[in-house]
Design brief:
Layout: E1 4-12, E2 16-19, H1 20-37, H2 39-43, H3 55-62, E3 66-69, H4 73-76, H5 95-111, E4 120-124, H6 135-143, E5 148-152, H7 158-171, E6 177-184, E7 204-212, E8 222-231, E9 237-238, E10 260-261, H8 263-284, E11 294-297, H9 302-313, H10 326-329, H11 336-343, E12 353-360, E13 364-372
Parallel strand pairs: 4-5, 4-6, 11-12
Antiparallel strand pairs: 1-7, 1-8, 2-3, 6-7, 8-13, 9-10, 12-13
Bound molecules: octanoyl-coenzyme A.
């Protein structure tokens, strides 16, 4: 078995931000327009009026202050409420591949690797923009990587589950250098017209280089000590969009064809699962939770991270032990814990222990225990 390191990460940040104030202003305009359009039905008691959103609620319930998006105008247009992307011809680089190439090239540069050093490319995200060919193969060709590529999706745990795949591929000797990309264009599958969730997500792409320790040259290396993936079926976060929709003659604009969740239930059920998962994973390597210098947790909700970190070490989320990025990025599905790692690991010293952990739809929980190399 080979020793395995994370030797570089990269981040693609979209060009536009939407503040909570901008989001709520456009949402409330949409509510006014809808209620005016359906005034007669509302007056007749045949239809419930829509209720406005509020900045105070969003910040208190989630900790989110803004989000990055690839297209701002379409999302904020109260007569549209979803992004507008130009359809691309088959011979043009696709949108998901474009942002993955950006983040992937940055991760390779950080690791000091050339594209041709990569012998496995995993594109792992909560949604793929098409059925086939695999996004990973297009990204592999665009970057000039060798070997082979494949796509995988485990919603918010896509990145940590891909880390487990990369770790196993490298330590077994099957691969020498794996590039993981997590292009999360969440704006295209978020329901911007639903006030219960319209504030939750943002677009981004992260990338991670995982390689054999004896071949790594980066000044910044994190040895992977272990990874642990777990799933437990739940319908509490669900999106029924899929390739059978047409055959089922279902309405493509029906509410169940975009993101929906029972947020309260998710909160209550996932917090204890995540804390117990991390504790058990650390115990399997004979570590106490307090031995961990930093937790890079999934970034969905400030309150969730507060409870998870309190259960583990009695500390505060948003502090040195568990940095937050969701105030700036919102929930970026699988990319959240990787952004937290990317942004907040430079100050740690050789020997410091860290945990990258995701939790979300599935339910799915993935943890990766890493140690800074000297
Ligand atoms: N403005 C004002 N009031 C509001 C709003 C709003 N925008 N939204 C809801 N309210 C009201 C509600 O109607 C409710 O009113 P009432 O009490 O009268 O019924 C009240 O505020 C409280 O509502 P909630 O109980 O829903 O509020 P919560 O405190 O539970 O907060 C959250 C809602 C923020 C959604 C919270 O439950 C949460 O974050 N839960 C965790 C969810 C989570 O982590 N999910 C992970 C999903 S991400 C994932 O796994 C990836 C999925 C795949 C990617 C998909 C990409 C698009």
């Amino acid at each position: 078995m080979h020793s395995v390191v994370i030797s570089g990460t990269g981040l693609y940040q979209p060009p536009h931000t939407i503040s909570n104030a901008e989001l709520v202003e456009s949402f409330n305009r949409y509510v006014e327009l809808q209620n005016a359009q359906h005034a007669a039905a509302i007056a007749a008691g045949e239809r419930e009026p829509l209720t406005p959103s509020s900045v105070e609620f969003i910040e208190k319930a989630s900790g989110i202050k803004q989000r990055y998006v690839i297209d701002k105008a379409g999302v904020l247009d109260p007569t549209r409420m979803y992004p507008r992307f130009a359809e691309r011809a088959d011979d043009q680089l696709s949108l998901m591949a474009e942002i993955a190439v950006d983040a992937g090239a940055k991760a390779l540069a950080a690791a000091g690797k050339k594209p041709e050093d990569v012998d496995l490319l995993i594109c792992s995200a909560a949604n793929m923009q098409r059925a086939y060919p695999a996004m990973a193969v297009e990204i592999q060709q665009a970057l000039g990587c060798g070997g082979y590529g494949y796509d995988m999706n485990v919603a918010c745990s896509s990145a940590t589950f891909a880390l487990e795949q990369a770790y196993n591929a490298v330590r077994s000797g099957a691969s020498k250098c794996v590039l993981i990309v997590n292009p999360e264009i969440t704006s295209a599958h978020l329901e911007w017209k639903d006030r219960d969730c319209h504030f939750i997500f943002g677009d981004v792409c992260t990338a991670i280089v995982v390689e054999r320790a004896d071949l790594a040259t980066s000044a910044d290396q994190w040895e992977i000590l272990g990874s642990k993936a777990a799933t437990q079926f739940s319908n509490n976060i669900r999106n029924n969009f899929g390739f059978l929709n047409k055959a089922e003659d279902s309405d493509p604009d029906a509410r169940d064809k975009t993101f929906r969740q029972e947020g309260r239930k998710v909160f209550k059920e996932v917090v204890p699962l995540a804390a117990a998962h991390i504790e058990a994973h650390l115990a399997s390597l004979s570590f106490e939770p307090t031995a961990v210098r930093r937790y890079w947790l999934h970034q969905a909700n400030l309150g969730m991270n507060q409870l998870v970190i309190k259960k583990l070490v009695g500390g505060e989320a948003g502090s040195d032990v568990a940095p937050l990025i969701l105030d700036e990025f919102a929930n970026t599905a699988s990319a959240g814990s990787i952004i937290a790692f990317h942004r907040h690991h430079g100050d740690l010293a050789a020997g410091d222990l860290g945990v990258i952990c995701s939790f979300g739809a599935g339910y799915s929980i993935g943890s990766v225990i890493v140690r800074k190399r000297g």
